Amino acid sequence: MSTRGRFLTLEGVDGAGKSTHVQWIADELRQAGLTVHVTREPGGTELGEKLRNLVLHEAMGLDAETLLMFAGRCEHLRQVIEPALARGEWVVCDRFTDATYAYQGGGRELGAERVAVLEAWMRPSLQPDRTWLFDVPLEVARARLADAREPDRFESEGAAFFQRTRDAYHARARLHPDRIRVIDSSRPRETVREHLREEVRELLDARA
Fold first, then answer.
1. Do residues 34 and 87 make contact, with C-beta atoms less than 8 angstroms apart?
2. I need a surface site. Which of 11, 103, 117, 200 has the fewest CB within 10 A?
3. Which domains does the chain have, with CATH numbers?
4. Per-state percent for the chain, helix, strand, coil, to nearest 5
5. Cα→Cα distances 200→31, 90, 184, Å
6. How far apart are alpha carbons 203 and 196 in whole angstroms?
7. What residues pair up with 9 in beta bridges, in sequence order?
8. 8 A C-beta contact, residue 155 and residue 108
9. Phi, psi for residue 8 in degrees, rounded to 5
């Protein structure tokens, strides 16, 4: 019987630079002999990718947006995350429920309480084993977005939205200090990766 895998997530506001490290973390784990599944939210399944396109590009109300996020997450857990963990694989996921607390709960001002109700209904017992919150000053994130592709619905939001989102992320980090590690991603990429390498070693040592 295989040992259950570990569930690792990366979070941060748009422009924080987290996505540049997803495959790198997966490669570090693979070099240690682990089987790794990389995925993302919204997305991760055929249905999830369709919902991702709707959420990122179609106008809709806040309730519909939040419910679609959790609908995709339910399928993501059922089809991908939970089976991979049960097989002993390590799952590296670009965003998970913390993002809904931050973006819908904070940025769009839905509030953490309503997000918590949906989380409890979905899979209250499943939390990431480790979450890295990539954090940069708001002006840095905004400058990085200015050089990006055509912005989606979230990337097009104003500074106040991103400040609320960042504040909500930090609230989550204070609430879950053992799980969520804040990474200063305003530093050079190699410096950030050296920090992450230490984090990965810690997880591998704990497994051993």
1. no
2. 117
3. 7-207 (3.40.50.300)
4. 55, 10, 30
5. 11, 12, 16
6. 11
7. 93, 131
8. no
9. -120, 135
Q: Classify 208 as helix, strand or coil.
A: coil
Per-residue pLDDT tens over the stretch 102-153: 999 999 999 999 999 999 998 767 899 999 999 999 888 888 777 666 788 9
The single-letter code of the amino acid at 145 is L
Which residue has 């804040």 as its token pair? 182
Which structure tokens are listed for 132? 């890295």
Beta pairing partners, 11: 133
Spatial contact of 132 and 199, defined as CB atoms under 8 Å apart = yes
Q: Which of these, 117, 119, 120, 101, lies nearest to 109 by C-alpha position? A: 101
Confirm if 72 and 95 have CB atoms less than 8 A apart. no
Q: Say if CB 41 and CB 95 are below 8 A apart.
A: yes
From the list 169, 68, 85, the residue with the least C-alpha distance to 125 is 85
pLDDT value at residue 1: 47
Provide the strand spans (E) within the chain.
7-11, 36-40, 90-94, 130-135, 180-184
Q: How far apart are the two ends of the chain, measured CA to CA in Å?
A: 17
Residue position matching structure tokens 């991103």:
162
Q: In this structure, what token pair is assigned to residue 103?
A: 């973006």
